[in-house]
Amino acid sequence: MSKELQTIPQHVAIIMDGNGRWAKKRLMPRVAGHKRGVETIKRITKYANSKGIKLITLYAFSTENWGRPQDEVNFLMKLPGDFFSSFLPELIENNCRVECIGDITKLPEDTQNILNKAIAESAHCTGLVLNFAINYGGQQEMIQAIQAISQKVKEGAIEIDQIDEALVEDYLFTARYGAIAKPDLVIRTSGEQRLSNFLLWQSAYSELYFTDVLWPDFSEKDFEEALVAFSNRNRRFGKV
Ligand code: FPP
């Protein structure tokens, strides 16, 4: 399982899809798929860390996911508690830092507290960053950036012709990631081939990788296949 990879992506973003279908295939409730999906996150994080990947951004809850049945939303909101109570010590031991993008102030208070505690307790770690996109939407991210920039223009702090790519990027949730804010590789599991409002600005030149494997089944070997595919791509960024 250890083929030589010529290029390791620094930032991998993952749309973890297929939990519901995984459960349905086993005649289990949808939430059983989410529970199993959390175990995949643990495996994949350890693997990414061992490969020297610097940043993993996981699409955990989109701004559109509020439209799911209330019971399912409630279950999803409890997952960070399950995940961090069993896995945060190991993350810290392995020098992994937890972060979030999206508007977490709209989450139930206990979920916010759990996330903020994980972020604070791992803040000193300098290895892999495990970044959860929660209550995240790419369009909403751009809207809040446009609003903040417009406010600065109104106050006279920014001239309109100073607005360029770099300035916009300073106002995105991913600003703190600087040179690695844009994912090199975006993986989506379960056979769907779309971005679903995930990192729309940042993925402009990302390599996209789709696999039919459902997220609860996504293994280290499947991840390695994605890395091999990435390593064989020829990234030109619009040039020849
Ligand atoms: C997509 O499967 C998955 C989700 C909407 C949620 C995944 C989220 C987690 C595993 C939560 C992790 C969060 C933390 C902080 C640990 P789906 O339900 O859309 O599957 P389907 O398309 O087969 O129905």
Descriptive key words:
240 residues; alpha/beta; Undecaprenyl pyrophosphate synthetase; six-stranded parallel beta sheet; 6 strands; 42% helix; binds farnesyl diphosphate
Mean pLDDT comes to 96
Q: What is the number of independent domains?
A: 1
CATH superfamily: Decaprenyl diphosphate synthase-like
Task: Report Rg.
Answer: 18 Å
Residues in β-strands, percent: 5-15%
InterPro entries: UPP_synth-like (IPR001441), UPP_synth-like_CS (IPR018520), UPP_synth-like_sf (IPR036424)
Binding site for Mg(2+): 17, 207
Active site: 17, 65
GO molecular function: ditrans,polycis-undecaprenyl-diphosphate synthase [(2E,6E)-farnesyl-diphosphate specific] activity; magnesium ion binding; manganese ion binding
In short:
With 240 residues, the protein is α/β, with parallel strands linked by helices.
Q: If you had to describe this structure to a student in words, what would you say it looks like?
A:
- The chain is of the alpha/beta class.
- The chain has one domain (11-138, 183-232): Undecaprenyl pyrophosphate synthetase (3-Layer(aba) Sandwich), CATH 3.40.1180.10.
- The protein has seven helices and six strands; from the N terminus they run E-H-H-E-H-E-H-E-H-H-E-E-H.
- The longest helix has 24 residues, at 70-93.
- The mean pLDDT is 96.
- The structure holds farnesyl diphosphate (FPP).
- Farnesyl diphosphate binds at residues 16-21, 34, 37-38, 41, 60, 65, 76, 79-80, 83, 132, 190.
- It comes from Globicatella sulfidifaciens DSM 15739.
